[in-house]
């Protein structure tokens, strides 16, 4: 059995949201849709240029879309991080943190018990949908958008983290993404 007492920092929460936005099916779908919209806009402009007989400007259109695409790719990550930080700060300013800062997490035979100063949540291992490992910690997804955050600071060392991941795999039979992170 495992038990962890740890603090979730604002950085841990932001790191989780960044990981989720970059690796979740919804985040990947949003990026794919953005690419398709860009390609559809390019195609629409090119077709309208060809129909209107303005074939001389096609090369400039392609260059403009290429430059816009590169700028979009370069700014997407920083804009996402800025948006996550801003929304977290706004929630913090309103007095409602979107996460519990002090957590006691206990893994029993049949249940995961997550205690904070205000709540106690019991989760069956069968309710976990996905286990993800990022450079910042371990995320036990109990729905498509919600997870139990275990920052790396909760683990004594890499061996304990590895043993914990092995334990979770035995309890859930879920594939653990990036287990050696």
Describe the structure.
With 181 residues, the protein is of the alpha+beta class. The protein has helices at 10-23, 25-52, 58-93, 158-172, and strands at residues 2-7, 102-107, 111-115, 120-124, 130-133, 137-141, 147-151, 176-177. The model has no long low-confidence stretch (mean pLDDT 85). The protein is 51% helix and 21% strand. Strand 6 (137-141) and strand 7 form a beta hairpin. The protein has a four-stranded antiparallel beta sheet with strand order 1-2-3-4, with no helix packed on it. The chain has four helices and eight strands.
- The total count of strands amounts to 8
Radius of gyration: 22 Å
**How much helical structure, as a percent, in the residues?**
40-55%
Share of residues in strands:
15-25%
Summing up helix and strand content along with how strands pair, one would put the structural category as alpha+beta
N to C succession of SSEs = EHHHEEEEEEHE
Uncertain regions spanning at least 5 consecutive residues: none
- Main beta sheet strand tally, sense and closure: 4 strands, antiparallel
Shape, per Cα inertia axes: elongated
- The first-to-last residue Cα distance is 22 Å
Number of helices: 4
């Amino acid at each position: 059995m495992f038990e962890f007492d740890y603090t979730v920092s604002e950085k841990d929460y932001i790191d989780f949201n960044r990981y989720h936005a970059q690796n979740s099916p919804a985040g990947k779908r949003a990026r794919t849709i953005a690419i398709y919209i860009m390609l559809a806009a390019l195609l629409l402009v090119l077709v309208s240029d060809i129909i209107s007989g303005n074939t001389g400007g096609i090369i400039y259109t392609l260059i403009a879309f290429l430059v816009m695409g590169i700028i979009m790719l370069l700014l997407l990550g920083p804009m996402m991080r800025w948006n996550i930080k801003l929304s977290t700060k706004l929630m913090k300013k309103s007095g409602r943190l979107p996460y519990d800062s002090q957590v006691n997490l206990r893994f029993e035979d049949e249940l995961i018990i997550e205690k904070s100063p205000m709540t106690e949540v019991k989760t069956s291992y069968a309710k976990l949908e996905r286990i993800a490992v990022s450079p910042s910690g371990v995320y036990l997804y109990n729905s498509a958008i919600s997870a139990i955050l275990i920052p790396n600071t909760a683990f004594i060392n890499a061996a304990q983290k590895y043993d914990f991941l092995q334990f979770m795999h035995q309890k859930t039979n879920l594939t653990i993404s990036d287990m050696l992170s």
